[in-house]
Design a protein that fits this description.
135 residues; Cytochrome Bc1 Complex, Chain D, domain 2; binds heme C
């Protein structure tokens, strides 16, 4: 095979696999909850933040996942960084900060008022267990 054609073929076959590797390949309990937040009473800044959040945090899994997960603000800070550092997350430092501020506001004003309606974040071990059951 011509070298250029071979390179192109490998690139075309490889790209979807490469993109797939980024996505979460497991369904978590949080994924099955609502995939929207009523932000009509949120401050203008958080309404803008919601857009960045829904745009950036839905790339590899459902947006329902973070919408239905409850954590402390400190955990959200760590979690947003963890998601930002995944390969090809496409989230800049400034966007990460905006998203964190939205999540911290939403945690305090929505989730903390009704904690039993949301799922606690799962440990890596719990996620691995679900993966094993689902595959
Ligand atoms: C590059 C892909 C990618 C992007 C972008 C991404 N995530 Fe994730 N996320 C994952 C994967 C993969 C998992 C499954 C757990 C794991 O393997 O780390 C996950 C899991 C989660 C969980 C479940 C935590 C738990 O333990 O129950 C939450 C919450 C979450 N992500 C929030 C976010 C937020 C908020 C954003 C936006 C800042 C985001 N994700 C963006 C890939 C991504």
């Amino acid at each position: 095979m011509n070298k250029a054609i071979r390179t192109i073929t490998i690139a075309c076959l490889g790209a979807p696999l490469f993109l797939m590797a980024q996505s979460s390949n497991v369904t978590l309990p949080q994924d099955k909850g609502p995939d929207k937040i009523n932000i009509s009473a949120y401050p203008a800044e958080q309404q803008k933040g919601y857009k960045v959040f829904t745009d950036k945090c839905s790339k590899c899994h459902t947006i329902a996942r973070p919408i239905n997960t409850t954590m402390t603000a400190a955990e959200w800070s760590r979690y947003v960084k963890r998601m930002m550092h995944k390969p090809n997350s496409g989230i800049s430092d400034a966007q990460g900060k905006t998203i964190y501020e939205f999540l911290a506001y939403d945690q305090e004003n929505r989730k903390d008022k009704n904690p039993s309606a949301f799922s606690k974040s799962l440990s890596d071990e719990e996620i691995e267990k679900l993966k094993a059951q689902q595959h």
